[in-house]
Amino acid sequence: MSKFFKFDELHTTFGREIVAGLTTFLAMAYILFVNPTVLGAAGMDKGAVFTATAISSAFGCIVMGLLAKYPIAIAPGLGVNAFFAFSVVIGMKIPWQTALAGVLLASIIFLIITLFKIREMIINAIPQDLKLATAAGIGLFIAFIGLKGAGLIVANKATTVALGSLTKGSTLLAIFGLLVTIILIVRNIKGAIFIGMILTSIVGLITGLIPVPTQVVSTAPSLAPTFGQAIFHLSDINTVQLAIVVLTFLLVTFFDTAGTIVGVAEQAGFLRDNQLPRAGQALLADSSSMLVGAILGTSPTSAYIESSAGIAVGGRSGLTAVVTGILFIFGLLFSPLLAVVTEVVTAPALIIVGIMMAGALGSIDWKKMEIAIPAFFTVIAMPLTYSISTGVALGFFLYPITMIVKGRAKAVHPIMYVLFFIFIIYFYFLSLNGNV
């Protein structure tokens, strides 16, 4: 196992990879409960979606770990699942079965362009400064999610966002977890983020802020209500409106995943000469899990920004992703225990990871405005639009413009010019269907 995952080369150990996999799983376990709630609003069976979420996540993580050997986890994406439920099914009044067929068709296209290495070419064509901006933007996005989950940042009609109540029990628990994690991080304690999550959970259970599970083991819900519906309704994709839905699924998931993989790879130090080794295998794991997820009955899967939590505690090999995948399978049977891992528990971890990823800002060439402007929009748009793909789109749209104006048009990779026009189409789709 050590030889297969190249522990020595990556300067990691079996124990560290196990902890990293567990940390990543705990940081993203919420999707097992959030995804059924979101898709349930569209009329889908919540139990079936729960099982589909767990299995598709396990499949994606294990394939990523064994094939690409990266510590990057995969699961149904947030944002795109809301687009699926609220924009497509509820807003456009498209049956959820037909919407799933749209996801399946998008995943087939995804798989084809992955096999022809088109996605890999695009990722490798992205300039280094924009890759750094993507990593930093994801860091701010993660921190924002953590601050929101902790209750430290709340919505405000007058100012958009504001400081939350510091007397609320759940917020105080998150502050405790954050302070403990900060102390452990500063003291260079190994596994600090994971230890912080465990201590926060324990204090939450003792104080009653986290409900004590009534049972430990439960039977996994049946997949019957959703399994295969995407295949049975492929023939329903026969209108321009549905074609636009399929393309939106494709574009959003493409750039959401590309942005996440680049950002996480930058954090972990995987990039070599501005290129990602085994990018094709990583993208194949992503696209194949999206196809499997559509058949089982869930919205598009994508690489998860919470993977950075596992990387932050030392995860560097594919074993981290494999462990995360195995835990998703166990999650089917031990779902009552997962209820302990609330937003308050994961919030401190996400904030700390955000701080770590923001370090990429220091390597961006801010003195050159043709670089600084698109980089800034990439970074700032992710948390402000609550979308990785939109941040990538804004920055990558501006990059060719600023470079041409500066007289550096020849320094821009031809693929970046192609992306310029693709992002114009992307923004058009968003304006039609709502932001995701």
Instruction: Give the DSSP E fraction (strand runs of 2 or more residues).
Output: under 5%
Shape descriptor reads globular
Q: Order of strands across the biggest sheet?
A: 1-4
Mean pLDDT: 89
- Number of spatially distinct domains: 1
Cα-to-Cα separation, first versus last residue? 40 Å
Largest sheet: 2 strands, antiparallel
Structural class call reads mainly alpha
Per DSSP E runs of 2 or more residues, the count of β-strands stands at 4
- Rg, alpha carbons: 21 Å
Helix tally equals: 20
Order of helices and strands: HHHHEHHHHEEHHHHHEHHHHHHH
Helicity level: 55-70%
Pick out the low-confidence regions: none
Describe it for me?
The protein has 436 residues and is mainly alpha-helical. The chain has one domain (7-433). Helices cover 67% and strands 3% of the residues. The chain is built from 20 helices and four strands. It has helices spanning 7-10, 14-28, 31-40, 46-68, 80-91, 96-115, 118-125, 128-150, 169-186, 192-207, 229-232, 240-268, 279-296, 307-312, 318-331, 335-338, 343-357, 369-385, 388-405, 414-433; strands at 74-76, 153-156, 160-163, 301-303. The strands form two sheets. It has a two-stranded antiparallel sheet. The protein is globular. The two termini are 40 Å apart. It comes from Terrilactibacillus tamarindi. Its main location: membrane. It is found in: Cell membrane. The chain crosses the membrane at residues 20-42, 48-67, 74-92, 98-118, 130-154, 166-186, 193-212, 242-265, 318-339, 345-364, 376-399, 411-430.
List the helices and strands and how they pair.
Elements (H helix, E strand, L loop, with lengths): L6 H4 L3 H15 L2 H10 L5 H23 L5 E3 L3 H12 L4 H20 L2 H8 L2 H23 L2 E4 L3 E4 L5 H18 L5 H16 L21 H4 L7 H29 L10 H18 L4 E3 L3 H6 L5 H14 L3 H4 L4 H15 L11 H17 L2 H18 L8 H20 L3
Antiparallel strand pairs: 1-4, 2-3
Helix pairs in contact: 2-15, 3-4, 3-5, 4-13, 4-15, 6-12, 6-13, 8-12, 8-17, 8-18, 8-19, 9-10, 9-17, 10-17, 12-19, 12-20, 18-19, 19-20
